[in-house]
Design a protein that fits this description.
single chain, 342 residues, alpha+beta, Jelly Rolls, six-stranded antiparallel sheet, 6 helices, 14% helix, binds fe (ii) ion
Length: 342
């Protein structure tokens, strides 16, 4: 029945004029049968992006250096700064000596070292190195700043849940002071408390859980050592999850980080989930079947796995490593996590 020849047309018109919506004409639109991502899977190739790192380093004015990050923006979001639903991914470029002035915000963010040896991220008074494969958390409302102390340009991968926090209109941002020299004069501080896996400092005082990991720095060499020791799953992959050592849960209340090592000749089980993911190719070559698309990827490429989209990954090189960041904990906390295997 078309909307115009309904017997209740006059009632519907009267309701709408009085700011009511009858459910019987709208239930299909407001209760879809299943999730439908706005975005198709998308690949950003490092080889296409690399020239922009050079240009950004040369052309960005000095007053904007502290924000010299380039965000991967999917055109499906109509010009909004979104990589896939709820998430952004970016690369930050610092020249030797460049500082990114400290600040803090309610957005949750992570950095992952790709070509960043020599750079340091300071988080709540702790120095965190950014060597190859290092993960650094900058949890909500933790002060953070960055500096390139090396002699080469540094580039690292960033991810954050800015679109999610903006969608909730829960953004708070506090700038730090450019002249705060004490901010930079710290060592690794309490990060030393969390370097021994399975070991925890005993405290007499109870300490409240903060909704994020108390450990901010997950060194790449530790990650790789664990992967080398892990047995392969039935589909050939070795996957680990970065955890909050106090809870065994995700590193932050709204972001989850995972690292997967693929082996040539084996394809991971096709899987879809209600959460969204961004994949950084840490090393190796391969391809992923995501939805209807085949994505061929190489080192430091980035691609997305939008929610409720089947994804399977295959290495072409002997091994290939993916770092995967997702908004899974949000769905887990709200009872909305659903995962299916094909
Ligand atoms: Fe920040």
């Amino acid at each position: 029945m078309s909307p115009t020849d309904r017997p209740d047309r006059e009632l519907i018109d009267a309701l709408e004029a009085a700011h009511y919506h009858p459910l019987w004409t709208r239930y299909r639109a407001i209760t879809p049968m299943k999730p439908a991502a706005r975005d198709n899977p998308m690949l950003w190739r490092w080889r296409d992006f690399a020239p922009f790192t050079e240009r950004a380093a040369r052309e960005v004015p000095i007053e904007d250096v502290e924000r010299r990050a380039i965000i991967l923006a999917h055109p499906a979001f109509g010009g909004a700064t979104v990589t896939t639903a709820n998430l952004i991914a970016a690369f930050t470029i610092l020249e030797p000596g460049d500082h990114a002035v400290p600040h803090r915000h309610t957005t949750a963010a992570i950095r992952f070292g790709t070509r960043a040896a020599g750079a340091v991220t300071l988080v709540n008074g702790r120095r965190c190195a950014m060597n190859e494969g290092d993960l650094v958390l900058t949890p909500p409302m933790c002060w953070h700043g960055h500096i390139n102390e090396g002699r080469e340009r540094t580039v690292w991968f960033d991810a954050a849940n800015i679109p999610f926090i903006c969608g909730m209109d829960a953004n708070f941002f506090e700038p730090g002071s450019r002249g705060d020299t004490a901010f930079w004069k710290v060592d690794e501080g309490d990060e030393r408390l969390y370097t021994g896996s399975g070991l925890e400092a005993l405290r007499d005082e109870p300490h409240g859980l903060q909704g994020h990991s108390p450990k901010f720095h997950y060194p790449g060499d530790v990650t790789r050592r664990l992967l080398d020791a892990m047995p392969r799953a039935a589909d050939g992959q070795r996957s680990l999850r970065y955890t909050n050592p106090e809870t065994g849960g995700p590193v932050m209340a709204t972001l989850d980080c995972q690292y997967t090592r693929l082996v040539a000749g084996a394809t991971t089980r096709a899987r879809r989930a209600t959460h969204n993911a961004v994949c950084l190719v840490v090393s190796g070559d391969g391809y992923s079947e995501v939805g209807d698309e085949r994505i061929e990827w190489h080192q430091h490429d980035v691609f997305t796995v939008p929610h409720w989209t089947l994804a399977a990954h295959t290495a072409r090189s002997a091994e290939a490593d993916l770092f995967i960041v997702s908004d899974r904990p949000v769905f887990e906390a709200l009872g909305l996590l659903r995962v299916e295997f094909e």
